[in-house]
């Protein structure tokens, strides 16, 4: 079921559909229906030559719509919910329903200055498989917590068996995913380059390749920002706040952070030296690991950009 907005404004928190030089559409994705706004009128997007279509990320429900639109030649911008909320807040838009949200998304699309190229469609099934592997990992962590608090030996054996079963399943799925990626020579080459960085295992390399298809074409600052690993200032007047990370691609950031711990203690001399230098300067363990995760991503971006594998260097702390 597809519904369109019928007016250009609403009683409370007026949403004015301003005129732009380009025609933009907005889609609010629900579990059972879509609400579409095209300059406030329920007309067909093709008929009005929509040059951009904005859609809000909605837990995966939007993916089929995005794929279909892109196959039909539309430029699609996928917004995070926080972006749409911020736009509504800026315009003092308090009223909220699916049709109003669709109109806001259309306005967000028109206001967007830079539209990035869509990811390679070959990565879509890989992303789904990787998400499943990550979810299995989360399930294992939850079962380990249950096992720790369990005093019944029979139940502990049950949790151990479940953990073992899920670990086996996870390893099998990862092996299949890597094999599928290697069916594409360009992806196989990038995967090997990323995995050549000491401290980046095959699973983290897969996460970087799939979650950041722009790898190798970014500056170090852009890569860190996309992964949510860029430190932002929090200063006001004479107050100097602590720098912190925000936003970005959460699952990629989680993968890199998980890789940073063994890299900072065992695998990469430069990362080890970085961790020691930061903690010696008073940085917390967590802040140092975030910096190490950021550095791992920068190393991966560099080797892909250069097209040459990682060369280990002996770091001096």
Number of helices: 11
The percent of residues in helical segments reads: 40-55%
Number of strands: 7
**Low-confidence spans: pLDDT under 50, at least 5 residues?**
1-20
Structural class by SSE content: alpha/beta
Which quaternary structure do these chains form?
Answer: single chain
Order of helices and strands: EEEEHEHHHHHHHEEHHH
Mean pLDDT: 80
Beta percentage is 5-15%
Cα-atom Rg, whole angstroms? Answer: 23 Å
Task: Give an account of the 3D structure.
The chain has 317 residues and is an alpha/beta fold. Helices cover 53% and strands 9% of the residues. It has helices spanning 63-71, 81-90, 98-111, 123-148, 153-181, 185-195, 202-211, 220-226, 250-267, 269-280, 285-306; strands at residues 2-4, 24-29, 34-38, 52-56, 76-79, 235-236, 239-240. A hairpin with a 4-residue loop joins strand 2 (24-29) and strand 3. Helix 6 packs across helix 11, helix 9 packs across helix 10 and helix 10 (269-280) packs antiparallel against helix 11 (285-306). The protein is globular and about 55 Å long.
Summarize the structure.
Helix 6 crosses helix 7 (202-211), helix 7 packs antiparallel against helix 9 (250-267) and helix 9 packs across helix 10. The protein is α/β, with parallel strands linked by helices and 317 residues long.
List the keywords.
317 residues, disordered N terminus, two-stranded antiparallel ribbon, five-stranded mixed sheet, alpha/beta
List the helices and strands and how they pair.
Layout: E1 2-4, E2 24-29, E3 34-38, E4 52-56, H1 63-71, E5 76-79, H2 81-90, H3 98-111, H4 123-148, H5 153-181, H6 185-195, H7 202-211, H8 220-226, E6 235-236, E7 239-240, H9 250-267, H10 269-280, H11 285-306
Parallel strand pairs: 1-3, 2-4, 4-5
Antiparallel strand pairs: 2-3, 6-7
Helix pairs in contact: 2-3, 4-5, 4-7, 6-7, 6-11, 7-9, 9-10, 9-11, 10-11
